Amino acid sequence: MGDYLRTAIQKHTMTVVDPLTLPDAPKMNDDFSNYFVVNNLPKCKMEKLPKLTTLLESTLKKKNLKINTEDIEMPINPETQETDGVAFIKMANEE
Fold first, then answer.
1. What is the pLDDT along the chain (95 residues), one digit of tens a residue?
2. Torsion of CA 55, 56, 60, 65, to 10 degrees
3. What is the CATH number of the domain that holds 74?
4. What pLDDT does 7 receive?
């Protein structure tokens, strides 16, 4: 039985191609040195997202970190329509 399954699986294997190696693949930025992650944020709906963004921005300004609102990314879970409780913040430089 094992030989039969092994042979059947080998007949139906497909070649898997990494989509990032295709010629028309978008150029991805692998350098995340300008980003930092803030975890354990409250999960909120879209209507409260501006308030949470303002809170993050004011908290970071108290630490003398200057950021723009558009540099704060908070992914929205499509199933729950809420944030995942995490923010990715892009800084001007690594320092």
1. 888 878 877 777 667 777 778 888 777 666 677 888 889 999 989 899 999 998 888 888 888 888 888 888 898 888 989 998 999 888 876 66
2. -120
3. 3.30.70
4. 80
- What residues have CB less than 8 Å from 61, skipping those under 6 apart? 67
Let me know if residue 95 belongs to a domain: no
Q: SS in 3 state form for the chain?
A: CHHHHHHHHHHCCCCCCCHHHCCCCCCCCCCCCCEEEECCCCCCEHHHHHHHHHHHHHHHHHCCCCCCHHHEECCEECCCCEECCCEEEECCCCC
How far is Cα 94 from Cα 13, in angstroms, rounded to an integer?
44
Q: Indicate whether 58 belongs to any domain.
A: yes
